Amino acid sequence: MKIYRIIVVSFLVLLTLTVTAQNDLDVYLQTAAKNNPGLNAKFKDYMAALEVVPQVTALPDPQLAFAWFISPIETRLGPQRAKISASQMFPWFGTLQTKGDVASEIAKSKYEIFLEVKSSLFNEVRSTYYNIYFNKRAIEITKENLTILNTFQKLAIIKVEAGKVSAVDEYRIEMEIGDLENQLALLRDQQLVLEVMFNNQLNVENDQSIQTPEILWTNDLDFDKSQVLNSLKANNHQLLVLSLQKQALIFREELASKQGMPDFSIGLDYAFIGAGSNNLPGTDAFVFPKIGITIPLYRQKYKAMVNEVVYLQESKNLEISDKVNILETVFENSWKDYKDADRRIHLYTSQTTLAEQSLMLLETEYATGNKDFEEILRMERKLLQYGLNLEKARADKQASISFIKYLMGV
């Protein structure tokens, strides 16, 4: 019963640490969404596109004209001295609505571009976070192996002084320590680069500390392969951008047809009449309505406008098909990486345990006998490599899940 309680408590502690670490990552993602200038630039593009809709759906500005006759025109009512004209042009029925539909679809595509950039940014933030975790763990594992080598070095010195082994054992371990210390220095430099990259993605000061878990969670993807593919085709932001651009082209074709129809204008004239020759006051003339029509005689231009949009629609359909093929290929490669990382986690967990046990046995045999020191160093290298491979597999698995979710548009 006591052992059972210990196991339960250990599991709960691990679960709490995992949830806390995931919450830290969520906070970083929220910070990136709020601060990243590239993402905010795309949102401003979307807001600007929304402002186009009221522009294209408005009627043309009315025209107002004033004329003063230097030589008054004599009329039956008296000399006409000035005239004011006002007119309003009206496009063909539904033209303004169609223009609004085109602008609206373009604005929607801008929003999908914003969401695509946001998903891509989140994937980059998560990937960098997992690389930072791996690099930190690599530093810790390398330091642990240096501690092990220092222990072996002390043991080797004792045996060399006792004349039981050659001084070559001491030289070998010094060379091994030198290699690890150089690797540790490189990892520390790499850590600085990764932290600067991460903070720049969040657009925060570079002195911000980055919290990572002691052991990275190994959660599985919540979807099976068919669900991922279905979501990719339905929700991928790149495909949605192309679909909305295609819809905008459909409205553009309708608009091109309507632009080949007549436009109408309605106006009025107001004439100022002076006193006639009989000295009677003149009577101003008011003419309403005045109706005009714009006749689109040059049909070849409008036919070409329609054909242009039809070709663009065909091009967009081909672009969508090509994008689907590319995304499916990319997904298959990501799914392979995801499954491979999962297998490597199980493999290197077992291999690390076996290497630790073997190294303990070899250390005991070397201390009590004349076990070949080269075999100890070889096993120590395996332990180091297995530990690094295990942490890399954990990071790779979560990075693959992150990228697959990015492809899914979630």
Describe the structure.
The protein is elongated and about 140 Å long. It has one domain (2-35, 91-261, 296-408): Outer membrane efflux proteins (OEP), CATH 1.20.1600.10. Helix content is 72%, strand content 11%. The chain is of the alpha+beta class. The protein has a four-stranded antiparallel sheet with strand order 1-2-3-4, with no helix packed on it. It contains nine helices and four strands. The longest helix is centred in the C-terminal third of the chain and has 70 residues, at 299-368. The protein has helices at residues 2-35, 37-50, 52-56, 95-161, 168-202, 225-235, 237-259, 299-368, 373-408, and strands at 63-75, 78-90, 263-273, 285-294.
